[in-house]
Amino acid sequence: MVGAFDYAPAIVLLPFLSFCLAVGVALSGRDLLPKGGALPGIAATAGSLLLSAWVFLTVSGGETYNETIYTWAAGAEATGSLSQPLELTFGLLLDPLSAMMLLIVSLVALLVHVFSLGYMNDEGETGLPRYYAGLGLFTASMLGFVVADNLLMAFMFFELVGLCSYLLIGFWFRQSGPPSAAKKAFLVTRFGDYFFLIGVVAVFATFGTAAFAGEESFPHLAEQAIQGEATVNTFLGLEPTAWFTVVGLLVLGGVIGKSAQFPLHTWLPDAMEGPTPVSALIHAATMVAAGVYLVARMYGFYALSPTAMAVIALVGAFTALFAASMGLVKREIKQVLAYSTISQYGYIMLGLGAGGYVAGTFHLLTHAFFKALLFLGAGSVIIAMHHNEDMWDMGGLKDRMPVTYYTFLAGSLALAGIVPFAGFWSKDEVLYEALVHGLGTTSGLGTALLVAYGMGLIAVLFTGFYTFRMVMLTFHGEPRTETAREATEPGWNVKLPLVVLGILATTVGFVNMVPVKDLTGAEIDFLHKWLYGTEGAGWAEALGTSGYNYHHLLVADYGAGMTAAALPSYLVGLLSLALALFGAGAAYVLYGGTDPDPYTDKLGVLKDVLYNNYYQDEYQVWLAEGVVLPLSKAADVFDQAVVDGVVNGVSSVSLFGGSRIKRIQDGLVTHYAAMLTLGLTVLLVGFAIYGGWF
Amino acid sequence: MIIETLIGFTFVAALLTLLVPDEVANRVGAALSLVPLVGTLWMWAQFDGSGNALAGGTLSFETKFDLLTLSGYQVQWFTGVDGISLPLVVLTAFLTTLAIVSAWTPIDDRQSQFYGLMLFMEANLLGMFTALDFFVWFVFWEATLVPMYFLIGVWGGPRRKYAAIKFFVYTNVASLLMFVGFVALTFGGLGDSIDTLSLPEVAMALDAGGNVSSFMGLAPGTLKLVAFLAMFVGFAVKVPVAPLHTWLPDAHVEAPTPASVMLAGVLLKMGTYAMLRFNFTMLPDIASDLAILIAALGAFSVIYGAILALAQEDLKRIVAYSSVSSMGYVLLGLIAFTEFGVAGATFQMIAHGLISGLMFMAVGVIYNTTHTRMVGDMSGLADRMPVTVGIFVAGAFGYMGLPLMAGFAGEYFIFVGSFHSTVIPSAPLFTAAAMFGIVIVAGYLLLAMQRTLFGPFDLDADYEVGPAPFHDVAPLAVLLLAVIALGVAPDLFLDMILNAIAPLVGGGA
Question: What is the mean pLDDT of residues A658-676?
């Protein structure tokens, strides 16, 4: 029977076709497509969305898919330390996690395409085919990454996502800022991907396979190896557990780069140089999401290592707090959103590291919608403000742009984590998981999780504050400039995506209301059930990628060894809600007036430190320009003077003598032909005499 | 006889081109180069060889007859291809045609001689990759130097004489060293146990073991070691392996674009091809003993070449040093003695041939238009020549190892192959060290692109800077498509390569 899974490759191929089409048009140099290629892009992503929905429904019916569809390269025999020939393949893994992610990515991509009609086309932008080509390839790469059934394929699409971010962040290449930001984005994430690639290679060398799911998958083999039921290669004299931790952390390097976690977060704020719809796509559903999605995708591997889990949780929590603190003082609306993205992905990492597979995935879901909404809302504001992004030049836009305001408000409430908006439910669950596992687990991991919980909790306060500082400065009070006074709302192509996302940002949290379940006993944790499946049966058994499997690994003594303390989730939720409300309220009090003062300036030196991002960029730029470049210049001098100097020295002394070189440079090549022949003859004769051939 | 026909035809074509008037030489040269191209593509389609040419495999298109006797050794005309040499033969013919087309714009002087030399070089390269008798092979090997010498020395930049002489002398001295090594091993060590210097016979005699006798007071083991080192150093100059690389940037900077394309695209592969055939196939035990040294040299070349590329201000020098870096990967793959290591190294020869050819051509097209290659002299070229810049960017990402392009395939195979090598001690550490090259390569290429291609347009020029002519861009586009095709479907070559290297890696050497 032909079903959704047979058409699944088209989910990836449709946006790719739209890319090819747009490239063709860009090459032709003529205006061959209506709207500069937007319509094929919209049609393609709409097609992907429909097919994703179909896949989603099929997966809901309990069916999953895990097949290889293309063999990229296959060895014939086992060599080196491998026990079986290597097969490098492409395939699809369609299970609840990837089905959900497909839906998120294709929906956000579609809305971003529609929004671009208003943001790019209506603004008289040139180079539109190039823009839509980039969007198409970006969407296709991300979708390919989501459905990947093995780590190598995931890496390959991960890199293509990086390429697309480079192309789109640097879209306005005629200015000097965007190309620099594009370079930085690719380079910083490439640094992370370096470790990821070592991890990929290590996984192949260790297990002989990089499949994510099934009996022969590397997480499963790792589990068996730890229990002594299977043997795998380990390297550098490490025991399996230690080696798996090393491999997991190597892959995590790529996650930290792409998901903009400390210390590789510095590329993301600069990436705001790209067009705003691209920012929405990068931050909500594609590039940045790719990192944490990878952790969720190979969760069965991470769940085996308490150390890796602790690192994930701590990096995430620290990033959540660290980025939120920088968001407090920014002037530009997109900068606030940029730091909020870094911070929110920190929460997702915290959730995953704290053993909250569902919690982290849930926050990935809600964040995708509310962050896409906030970026597109910011885009709408930026259109109205004629591309001035400074919030201190705005104010009073509430009455002039009501649709933008109310949808943006919904997104902000979700971001700040105010009940009942989406972000509340997911962030609350993340913090809840961190707390209960932190309290329940007695090992060092428990301590780490408690520390992480503390940082996450403080970040809630900051988030509430910076979010509503942004809302107040942008929309409330009196307009502070002429542009703001004359701002009007853009057309339907801007408003439609905002409304769709506004509804989602308000409601999507209802899919997993754990506190309500705990209070009332109603079985309404749908996402939880969706990701768990049925224990020991169906796809959960066959693929090993269900919440049940992960739960077993997390609590097993050979795995992360976590224990959950008994705490009612609503009590934990109340605490974080109170902090969020306090932060938001403080922002309302300080900035809600008609003509607010820049209160954060009173922080003095602290404000400078925050505004300059703790000088993180400075030290990284110093590393590149103050250390690496001079080093390379020195190496160049060494190479010219010493390495080449020896060569020239040898040639002038022993072969010719300095004056000879000059004489030879008269261009008489016959000298060299003669030398060649002579040398050969001498050698031959020498050997001949020695060998006694004559 | 297809190989002989193609080599013979190409020699005749070189002569013919030399005789036609300069005005038509470009088209005549290109048209004539299509014949070997079609011929090698046909060979690719008809290829039915299996196994390794030097390990008793079945050759495709084999020809063998006696030429003359040299002090007891039968010199043979012995040609044929296996899964290692065929891809290189196809690469040679493919790049020659494209390089000839890329010469149409920059070469405006003594065209008939130029295109004649290009074809003459092609004929020798085809001979070098197909010859299996040492004498014939060595003649072709040396004869490729001559046309390249003239191409650099006559049509090159301001310091062309110095660069050409340095290229010629450096690589020629290396050839002599290699020659001494091989001759000592065969004439001296193997002595009468062989009666030809056909490479398969030598390889199999060495493989049988116990055949090597003492020579000039050197015990058999020492003799093999000395011969290995002499050949290794000789080939390493050609590759080039740092620190024997300094002839390369000078040669590239002075060489005209088409010569650079051939130099980086094919001539460097002579070094790694010969290493694979001689050092790693004939003396794998010595190679294994020296594994730590060779792996370290490979990793060092990768990192050192990349760091030097970072310091350069001339686009062509950047690409030149990056070749040192990319060829270092090949060395690492070869010494791994795993299936994917050696096959990846061979694949990387093709991938790097295409990508470095693409990059040198793209730099050449920019130079044709802007008359400068210095990074600081220009900015914002994307505004004026969007298609060229688009391909440049794509090619640069290919160089950085973007997946689904040939470079990633080659590098990934090498990495995965060397990581689980049992020959290299602490293989994961060497692999990880060499892999850092993928970060540095992104650094210097992205930096150079940001400064030259993007930003506001700026060039101190009193001439029009516009899109490049079609015949400049077309070879770039063809190369890019080839790079993508090999990246998506590496099996186009990988299958036959795997088949050919299997005897070398069986049982982990």
Answer: 55
> Quick check: A24 pLDDT over 90?
no
Per-residue burial over B72-108, b = 16 or more CB atoms within 10 Å of its CB, e = otherwise = ebbbbebbbbbbbbbbbbbbbbbbbbbbbbbbbbbbe
Burial class (CB in 10 A: 0-12, 13-18, 19+), A602: exposed
Q: Of the candidates A523, A101, A561, which has an alpha carbon nearest to the alpha carbon of residue A348?
A: A101
B179 interaction partners in chain A (CB closer than 8 Å): 680, 683
DSSP string, B74-121: EEEEEEEE-TTHHHHHHHHHHHHHHHHHHTTTT--SSHHHHHHHHHHH
Cβ-defined contact of B339 to A235 (cutoff 8 Å): no
Alpha-carbon gap, residue A538 to A92, rounded angstroms: 18
pLDDT tens per residue, range A643-653: 888 887 776 66
Residues A416 and A321 reside in one and the same domain: yes
pLDDT value at residue B438: 93
The pLDDT value recorded for residue A677 is 65
CB B370 within 8 A of CB B446: no
Task: List the single residue in B149, B387, B427 with the smallest CB-CB distance to A672.
Answer: B149
Residue A314 and residue A364 in one domain: yes
Q: Do B338 and A82 touch (CB under 8 A)?
A: yes
Residue B208: name the closest of B184, B190, B182, B188 by CA.
B190
Residues of chain A found within 8 Å of residue B392, distances taken between Cβ atoms = none
| Residues A649, A507 within the same domain | no
DSSP β-bridge partners for residue B75: B68
Residues in chain A: 694
User: Given this model, what pLDDT does residue B220 score?
Assistant: 85
Candidates A12, A30, A79, partner chain B, best to mutate (most B CBs within 10 A) = A79
Residues A667 and A571 reside in one and the same domain: no
Whole-model pTM? Answer: 0.92
User: Chain A closest CA to B468's CA: distance in Å?
Assistant: 14
- A103/A120 Cα distance (integer angstroms): 25
Residues A432 and A574 in one domain: yes
Q: Name the residue with tokens 């299977």.
A: A230
Alpha carbon of B397 to those of A29, A186, B141, B291, B406: distances in Å? Answer: 23, 11, 33, 31, 11
| Side chain identity at residue A225, one-letter code | A
Whether A69 has its CB under 8 Å from any CB of chain B: the answer is: no
Q: If we measure between CA atoms, which residue out of A224, A212, A100 comes closest to residue A542?
A: A212
Give the residue-averaged pLDDT of B132-141.
Answer: 93
Contact across the interface for B246 and A647, Cβ inside 8 Å: yes
Residue A245 located in a structural domain: no
A636–B312 C-beta distance less than 8 A: yes
Q: Does the distance separating the beta carbons of A76 and B498 come in below 8 Å?
A: yes
Residue A661 confidence (pLDDT): 47
What's the rounded Cα separation, in Å, for the pair B494 and A452? 48
Shared domain check, A594 and A476: yes
Amino acid identity for residue A468 in this structure: F
Nearest residue in B to A690, CA atom? B216
What is the ipTM score, two decimals?
A: 0.94
Spatial neighbors of B433 by CB under 8 A, at least 6 apart, are: B299, B303
